[in-house]
From TrEMBL:
GO terms assigned for molecular function: 5'-3' exonuclease activity; 5'-flap endonuclease activity; DNA binding
Keywords tagged on the record: DNA-binding, Exonuclease, Hydrolase, Nuclease
SMART domains noted in UniProt: 53EXOc, HhH2
Tree of life domain: Eukaryota
GO biological process: DNA replication, Okazaki fragment processing
Organism field: Angomonas deanei
Occurrences of domain 5'-3' exonuclease (ranges): 6-299
Parts forming coiled coils: none
Protein name: 5'-3' exonuclease, N-terminal resolvase-like domain/5'-3' exonuclease, C-terminal SAM fold, putative
Keyword Mitochondrion attributed: no
Keyword field contains Nuclease: yes
Length: 299
């Protein structure tokens, strides 16, 4: 029996908006430098490359934090189950906090980006049935779901962790670092650095364990997403407080009582902001996608 017949499959969860935005910015930069590359051709080429990469992930390599060898699109065996997720609303975050991603909404959307998004979806949807699922586009009944790509990815990844199904999240969004779990075979591939990100990698980068990313952002905030955090805390203090008190609940109970001076004042004044920020950052699990997802993964 060949290696291809016995190799364990992985579920690859792709952050569609992150991927297409990255392609758009690369294409835009190239055109400013004098390139005449057609945007549609650029997307088609990159989408196929992304699919080849997704199918090359090998669970036996992932367990050693090693990337699988890249192969050409036309010669890539369809080993893995690829699920590409696109935003379909914001999960009610703007309703909860009107300034959520306000800076991004105020920037004029380049029409070429919309074209590239449509072309990418078309390329993905043209793949052989049973090898790829595009959410929510693959099922018309899912069009009413109000969720970001992150929410759909988290819903599937957390389900897979329960059953220890090898899963790779493909993105550059550090919100999704929360899903890294070596013991549960849940991995992260960073589309910017082209490296797998381990639990140790997250700790080295932002100073906290992946499971604390949500609490970290609730304290430190995130200007790019419009998450307020607690004014006056910042990244360094957020790291320190989480290490000292374990998690956000510990900071907002024990920390408020034990911290003195300016830090104590900041925490007491910022409880509501911390709790609001946690609600914004929290994943909106969307179980309605799971019947479609589970049926696809069984094929």
């Amino acid at each position: 029996m060949t290696l291809h017949a016995t190799r364990e499959a992985a579920v690859v969860l792709v952050d569609g908006p992150a991927l297409v935005h990255r392609w758009f910015h690369r294409w835009s930069y190239a055109t400013k430098q004098g390139s005449t590359v057609d945007s549609k051709r650029f997307v088609i080429k990159n989408a196929r490359f992304a699919l080849a990469r997704a199918h090359s992930f090998d669970p036996s390599h992932l367990a050693q934090n090693l990337l699988s060898p890249q192969v050409e699109y036309a010669h890539t065996p369809k080993h893995n189950k690829v699920i590409v997720c696109f935003d379909n609303g914001d999960g009610g975050r703007t309703e909860l906090f009107p300034d959520y991603k306000k800076n991004r909404r105020q920037v004029a959307r380049d029409p070429e980006l919309s074209v590239m998004m449509k072309v990418a979806k078309r390329v993905f949807l043209e793949e052989p049935e049973g090898t790829i699922l595009v959410l929510p586009d693959s099922n018309p009944r899912l069009k009413m779901i109000n969720a970001e790509a992150d929410d759909m990815i988290a819903t599937i990844a957390l389900r897979n962790q329960k059953y220890k199904v090898p899963t790779v999240v493909v993105s550059h969004d550090f919100d999704l670092y929360q899903l890294i779990d070596d013991n549960c075979k849940s991995y992260h591939y960073d589309i910017r650095t082209k490296y797998l990100v381990s639990e140790k990698g997250v700790i080295d980068r932002i100073g906290i364990h992946p499971k604390l990313v949500r609490d970290y952002k609730a304290l430190a905030g995130d200007a790019s997403d419009g998450v307020p955090g607690v004014k006056g805390i910042g990244k360094v203090r957020a790291q320190s407080l989480l290490k000292k008190y374990g998690d956000l609940d510990g900071v907002l109970t024990k920390g408020i009582k034990k911290e003195t001076g300016r830090v104590g004042e900041i925490l007491r004044e910022g409880v509501k902001d911390a709790e609001l920020s946690r609600k914004i950052v929290d994943f909106r699990l969307c179980p309605k996608i799971m019947p479609t997802v589970e049926q696809f993964m069984k094929k």
